[in-house]
Design goal:
Elements lengths: L1 E10 L16 E10 L3 E6 L11 H6 L3 H9 L1 H11 L3 E5 L11 H10 L13 H13 L7 H9 L14 E3 L2 H11 L3 E7 L4 H4 L4 H6 L3 E10 L11 H13 L3 E2 L1 H8 L1 H9 L1
Parallel strand pairs: 3-4, 3-6, 4-5, 6-7, 7-8
Antiparallel strand pairs: 1-2
Helix pairs in contact: 3-11, 4-7, 11-12
Length: about 280
């Protein structure tokens, strides 16, 4: 099945050297109605976690300030997106954090393991020396997460789970590694991954199953802007500047940026019209 979706892209040319800042001559954000072949496209929900409450794990919440935004997306945007995707018969994959066994009973995970094999290849690591360990200890204490927060984070990860609103359904593929996600893509002929989840400038880019690894496998990697949030810092948190820059980076280096309403309307046009008129 093929549909047409308004598709966000960034025109990163031409610099205008008559301007004080030549880069301000770039075309900037544009939108074009482009074809999306649902038989070769999958929605990937990556690291949608149940974080627990702030009273349960205050240290985790102190270091991951985006948790309230992520929880709101899991309550509001992701169920609408997943509902439309599933209704249209588009493939859904889930990428999990391989800690504990909360994901291992899903039939889609057992399929991913069967397709990719039991043992994922791990990159060879340089032996740690005293200097490296010392610098890593400094970063842990002074950059992230801070020694006083570490126990809460460990406790939070020990009971990690997927929120009920976004849990895998049926035999939807569940991957804990890049090899498993690629095996699922290869099995179903998927060439385009559209990501949702957390965080767009961290795990969605760099973790197993993220855009960097999947681009190396030749897949186009896009995102639904309202279905992600970013790791923000002191200077960007108020206006979510890190998210804005991340969406530009994805549009430039990986794929496209879709808007939630455009996706829902394109995937479920009749239902969308009926809801809008009610």
């Amino acid at each position: 099945m093929k549909i047409t979706v308004p598709t966000g892209y960034y025109r990163h040319f031409d610099a205008d050297f008559s301007l004080d800042v030549p880069g301000e001559g770039y075309g900037g954000w544009r939108k074009e109605a482009l074809e999306l072949d649902l038989s070769h496209t999958a929605l990937v929900v990556l690291h949608a976690w149940d974080f627990g409450s702030r009273s349960q794990f205050p240290g985790w919440h102190r270091t991951v300030e985006y948790i309230p935004r992520a929880e709101a997306i899991c309550r509001n945007e992701l169920p609408r997106l997943l509902g439309s995707v599933r209704e249209a018969g588009m493939t859904v994959f889930h990428v999990v954090e391989p800690i504990g066994d909360y994901y291992q009973a899903y039939p889609g995970y057992r399929r991913a393991v069967r397709l990719a094999g039991e043992n994922a290849s791990e990159p060879e690591r340089i032996p740690e020396d005293e200097s490296l360990l010392s610098l890593q200890a400094f970063r842990s204490a002074n950059v992230f997460p801070g020694a006083h927060n570490a126990d809460d984070i460990r406790a939070g990860f020990a009971r990690l789970d997927i929120p009920d609103a976004v849990k895998p359904q049926g035999d939807e593929g569940v991957a804990a590694t890049s090899e498993q996600l690629f095996a699922l893509c290869r099995e179903q002929g998927i060439t385009h991954l559209i990501y949702a989840g957390f965080a767009v400038n961290a795990c969605i880019l760099m973790n197993p199953g993220g855009m960097v690894d999947m681009r190396r496998h030749g897949l186009l990697c896009s995102v639904v802007g309202e279905a992600v949030t970013a790791v923000e810092n002191k200077e960007t948190a108020r206006n979510e500047g890190a998210k804005a820059l991340s969406l530009w980076s994805i549009a430039l280096f990986f794929g496209f940026v879709y808007q939630l309403e455009d996706m829902v309307a394109a995937l479920s046009p009749t239902r969308y019209r009926d809801e809008g008129q009610s």
